[in-house]
Amino acid sequence: MDVTPNPCRLVAHATGLGLRERKKLRTRNAIRRATYRLIAQEGYEATTVEQIAEAAEVSPSTVFRYFPVKEDIVLTDEYDPVMAEVLRSRPADEPMLESLRYVIIESLRNMLRDQPEELYARTRLMVDVPSVRARMTEAMTGTAQILADILAERTGRDPAELELRLFVSTVLCALREVTLYWGERDFQDDLFALVDRAVTLLRDLDLRQ
């Protein structure tokens, strides 16, 4: 299965980067392409960083510079800045849960349109490989902080406020469980409907502005 990432929908973000950052983006994408190709052929556990580096035509140290652990290669994408931009564009008086729902839906819509096989492969790895699933939980911390900071800007809250941190983390944990559920059921369900079901359950947790 070809799971080569297609960054076309991120062109607007990429064109705003300097030459050095665009070069870094190309290197990250090359490493991810090589990783998904090798995993499709050899399986996750059998794929080594040395193999990835050779296939991507970079050194192992370069792979580790961009991705500290192998799990990060399949979990890291370029969508956090895009999510941040979308969240900043939402109406200031919109309930926070609805804003996050919109950001999540738009991000998933973009991934399914531009990188469907990568999303499916990543989800399968989350379901099947405990280390990938565990690292996903760790990686969510950075995304949660980005989103919490923006919500704090919009509402005048302290970004370190416990309630705000818990709220954002709860929404992202719900997204993780929705994604796992979707993958466990072999992608038969409508992913957007699953997100809406999760949001319905979380509405009572929304922090009103």
UniProtKB/TrEMBL annotation:
Record flagged with keyword RNA-binding: no
UniProt DNA-binding residue ranges: 48-67
HTH tetR-type domain segment(s): 25-85
Keywords: DNA-binding, Transcription, Transcription regulation
InterPro entries the record matches: Homeodomain-like_sf, HTH-type_TetR-like_transc_reg, HTH_TetR, MftR_C
GO MF annotation list: DNA-binding transcription factor activity; transcription cis-regulatory region binding
UniProt-recorded name of the protein: TetR family transcriptional regulator
Organism lineage string: Bacteria, Bacillati, Actinomycetota, Actinomycetes, Kitasatosporales
